[in-house]
Structures are given as structure tokens and as C-alpha cells.
Design a protein that fits this description.
7 strands; Rossmann fold; seven-stranded mixed sheet; 26% helix
């Protein structure tokens, strides 16, 4: 799988999420980094749809975390924007569901990486021409291998 992606439309962003669904496993953590409007929720929607989640995947901004069941793997979708620090993350008890779920955390950089030994960071951005971009940054040899082996 390529490390860098141009995402001209939200459908392209969802398609990248769907491609990631092909390589994620139970216990995976994806940390989505990027400014408002960069495509974090759209990417998670594509991931959820490809995992077979049946209910709508919406931004968990006001509820902090949503759990989506019914797919190939449970999807835990977290918005850490309003969290004050690692202590607030601990209060969410995310580590209780990490082993059997795919956990996606928006705005989680510097807050959630300690939950697992390795994770995938997805750096999303929005260029001046309104095209979104994504850079996949693997943290750990398992993610390095999976990205290298993915179609």
C-alpha cells in the first residue's frame, strides 16, 4: 500500500479507509492526525463500511467515543479533541476493548499511543486547492510489513 495518497474527493478518502479495512486486525490502533475538515471522519466511514458496520459512522465529537458492532471487527471511534490529557484517555477505559476491536482515534496524537505496542498514524491534510492528502506512518515492524505487503 502506498504511504502517500492524494484524496481529491471525500469518496477517495472513504476508499482509503476501505483499503485500510483490508489490513486491520483486532487490537489495531489508528491515530488520525490533521486539521478540521481534513477527512478524519470520512476515512473512518470508509473503514467502517468496509468492515461491515451497519449503522452510520458519524463524528463522535460530543459523545467522545462510539462503538460500532456488527461488522467483521468491532470499531471503536474516538474523538480526543476535547480530552485534556492522558488521564482523560485512561478514564475512557479504551484499553478494555483494544484487544478485540479496531480503535480509531481522531485528534489522538500524543494521547493514545501507549495503549498498544504498535500503531498506524494517518496524517491527513487539506491543501489550498481543497484536495486532501494522507500520509500513512507505521509505528512498529508489524505495520511496516502489512503496509509493504498490502496491494
Amino acid at each position: 500500500m502506498r504511504r502517500e495518497h492524494a484524496l481529491p474527493t471525500s469518496e477517495d478518502t472513504r476508499a482509503l479507509g476501505a483499503a485500510l479495512a483490508e489490513v486491520v486486525r483486532a487490537g489495531d490502533l489508528l491515530v488520525l492526525v490533521g486539521p478540521l475538515g481534513a477527512g478524519k471522519t470520512a476515512l473512518t466511514q470508509g473503514l467502517g463500511q468496509a468492515l461491515g458496520v451497519t449503522e452510520p459512522v458519524t463524528s463522535p465529537t460530543f459523545v467522545i467515543a462510539r462503538v460500532h458492532l456488527g461488522g467483521r471487527l468491532p470499531l471503536v471511534h474516538v474523538d480526543a479533541y476535547r480530552l485534556g490529557g492522558v488521564a482523560d484517555v485512561d478514564d475512557l477505559d479504551l484499553d478494555a476493548s483494544t484487544e478485540e476491536s479496531v480503535t480509531v482515534v481522531e485528534w489522538g496524537q500524543g494521547l493514545v499511543e501507549q495503549l498498544v505496542d504498535e500503531h498506524l498514524e494517518v496524517r491527513l491534510d487539506r491543501r489550498d486547492d481543497d484536495v486532501r492528502t494522507a500520509l500513512l506512518v507505521p509505528h512498529g515492524p508489524g505495520w511496516e510489513r502489512r503496509l509493504a505487503d498490502a496491494p
